[in-house]
Amino acid sequence: MPEASANIGVVGLAVMGSNLARNLASREGNTVAIFNRSYEKTETLVSEHPEAGFIPARTYQDFADSLQKPRTAIIMVKAGGPTDAVIDSLLEVFEPGDIIVDGGNAYFPDTIRREKAVRETGVNFVGAGISGGEEGALTGPSIMPGGSDESWITLGPILKSIAAIAEGEPCVTHVGHDGAGHFVKMVHNGIEYADMQLIAEAYDLIRRGTGKSPAEIAAIFAEWNKGELESYLIEITAEVLRQVDAETGKPLVDVILDQAGAKGTGAWTVQTALSLGVPVSGIAEATFARSLSSHPEQRAVAGALPGPDEEFTVTDEAAFIEDVRLALYASKIVAYSQGFDEIRAGAAEYGWNIDLGAISKIWRGGCIIRAQFLNRIADAYAETPDLPVLMSAPYFAEALTRGQASWRRVVIAAATAGIPAPAFSSSLSYYDGIRADRLPAALVQGQRDFFGAHTYKRIDKPGTFHTQWSGDRTEIEAEDTH
Fold it and tell me: Which of 5, 31, 423, 458 is the most buried (most CB within 10 A)?
């Protein structure tokens, strides 16, 4: 029986799990037990990294015996059935008070279900969103753990030891109970979808409008990364656009098939937002854009459909590029504002006490959407914790005011030229919708009452009303059952 000397264990040693285990082992105070269904992977990790001092386990019982109490294990396996199988195996060897952490991209309702079932055994279950990819897992990710207050006492110091550091603060916080961590990670990924689509639309507009090469546009993005758009995604965009394909000598972006993949978190974000009644139009359009790109059979047929008669030409390149930059920043603000709206709504629906300012702070480092302006989001929530619309905060309102004319010109140019810019245009429509004094929803509600007696409310007196649309068009006060 191995000596109980490890304070943390990792189950699942594919790239993410291996890198996370190495990260843990490299931090002072951590001793890491490791287990994989195939012991060969365990042996390989131990032999390749002897400096880590891993404690390898052949069986779940050996793994449990090597862990100090309360035993703490992070699962890094495929979401779904494999995660459930590992949980079941750990429950056979763990005791009340021990902690099981799911570090995968689980769907938050599954985490809620698992936490409830595991809690009945006395074991703590924590769903933890981990962002940063393979590199982040190794060098410092952004971590979004849920779970019980009890589990955070043990887990907090361990996660703080491996998280990315932004302005002296570890990029981890106890998000909330049961599924809160995976919910926030889901929305993070949804914002990531929107951010990436907006950047792609900016690239496409500049390339088609100016004829600049990918390498020339890379230089533009590199310059943008020195200002208010500074972010990981802008940085790597410049790197991708600079890359030349070794085989053909062409820009790599021109060799890559234009069909974007997705692993489901964007769709989850949109589906959940719909159920919560929260508009996340930028995230939705980004998700649909990936879907559209992945239907070449439809695009091949629809390619014969007519477009604008005139070629798209830009007379003042510098002015157009600046317009695109400002439109990108304005649309980015909308994406984050919508994402934080969804987090607030989710917290209210599921009873989570989520600190939105703290979430913005842990996204400043390690994660894919890390960006300079997350500090501005943290400032906004520090000043007004119950801020109803993030983009109404003074800093963002000023940025939107400054970029509004450019934003409109870019959307007009895209529509006139027949260039798809769904994230740009939907973000602008949302902006105009949320600032409108009155929306045509009054007509929609009138239509609903006409065909379904769904009732409506009036602007001039309280109560709920229904119009008898046939005959004399009489209005009656209706019992509000909706």
Answer: 423
